[in-house]
Amino acid sequence: MRVVKPGIALGLFFAASTSAIVSLPACKSDGQKAAPSSAPAVAPCVAIDTGDRKVLFRVEVARTPEEHTRGLMYRTRLAADAGMVFVFAQPGIQRFWMKNTLIPLDMIFISADRHIVGVVENAAPETENERRVAGPSQYVLEIGGGLATRLGIHAGEPVDFQGVLPP
What we know:
Blueprint: H1 6-23, E1 45-49, E2 54-62, H2 65-70, E3 82-92, E4 105-110, E5 116-123, E6 137-144, H3 147-151, E7 159-162
Parallel strand pairs: 2-3
Antiparallel strand pairs: 1-2, 1-7, 3-6, 4-5, 4-6
């Protein structure tokens, strides 16, 4: 067993974590387009204003029917600040299932005017029951199961997309 002095270990951890943070593109918090530069584009993010705070999720974007069908299938974990946003060409009643999805998810249905229509909480993994809300939505954000309640996310709250192109 190799022993590393606490000061050295802390320094190595700090250096490694700092370089990892610096190399990741940041989400822009004001919703404005970034000025042209040689820096990487804004990473796709979805921000929800709960009234108490703005909650930010780094997202993968599903735009095509194939991406919609695959979604978060076969994933064994999802970071607390991560998710997937499904972008549809037109608002409508969106229907989701959890076939081959291995982790519980919350589904946040978002209208064309970017307000939360409704939330399906803790959708059970590996089930084919239809999940939907009563009103039309153009976007659906999937996040880890139980997060919507823990973070105070509710219907009616405004949503901001950053780095996610509208349909």
